[in-house]
Amino acid sequence: MHDGMKCQRTKIRLAVYIVLTLGLLLVALFGESIAPYDPYKTNVMAIDQPPSYDYWFGTDNLGRCLFSRVLTGARSSLSATLLIVAITGVLGTLIGVAAGYYGGIVDNILKRLLLIFQSFPGQVLAIAIVGVLGAGFGNAVIALGVIGWISYARIARSMVLKIRNAGYVNAARLCGCGSAYIMIHHVIPNISSLLFVTAMNALAGTMLEISALSFLGLSATPPIPEWGFMISEGRKVLMTAPWQTLFPGIAILITVIILNRLGDSVQDYMAVRQQELSVM
């Protein structure tokens, strides 16, 4: 009875955060369309206006509507987050699976790469890479992709080492299946749930990382509205117009909380689901 109630609460909590995440994605897709003003249009007559009936979040130093820019900025912030998680997840999984399955020199190369990348603080390495490549959205994605694949590769490698000699894998080899076929159709599906949980848990951290790069001026470039960059612009007038920093910061906070709780809910659901399957 108690386990049934726990499972039900887990499912409800997961459904709630899925709905909230879908809400964020809808804002990202249609934010610019529902924005009351053009987020790029300047207005010298409305510079640094506080929140009001006309401008709910106030205006910035160029007279642009902050509410419209926050809505529009959801697209760049969330798209960058999802793109980075997708790229790092796929890349890290493929590298980890190949290293764990083949072993030998391939595995040794991966272990050396992991040691090299883990010897540097991730955010510092990302800043250095963007500094070399130049500021820009694409270069920020590359920089965070370079440091983000490590966790997926490590998890995939350790899981594959446990199952590469399992009965169903050996049976596939005896049937004449090639290594690529076995990895795609037998190995990856059996470790996908753990990697999916890892990706869900990485969403919130990735959002903070891309916002940090934007705050430093290394990701989004003017006039693109991006929450981290908007905070960076607003800090120049923090004492006289704090709303320019406050509202983009709140947008990041709410998004990170939702994504973080989504990751926790997915992890809890997977654990409960695993218990149900073990009982059956």
Automatic annotation (TrEMBL):
The chain crosses the membrane at residues 12-31, 78-101, 113-131, 137-155, 194-216, 237-259. Pfam families: BPD_transp_1. It is a multi-pass membrane protein. Its main location: membrane. InterPro entries: BP-dependent_transpt_permease, MetI-like, MetI-like_sf. SUPFAM superfamilies: MetI-like. Gene3D superfamilies: MetI-like. It is found in: Cell membrane. Keywords: Cell membrane, Membrane, Transmembrane, Transmembrane helix, Transport. Residues 78-263 form the ABC transmembrane type-1 domain. GO terms for cellular component: plasma membrane. GO terms for biological process: transmembrane transport. Belongs to the binding-protein-dependent transport system permease family. This is Binding-protein-dependent transport systems inner membrane component. It comes from Desulfitobacterium hafniense (strain DSM 10664 / DCB-2). The lineage of its organism: Bacteria, Bacillati, Bacillota, Clostridia, Eubacteriales.
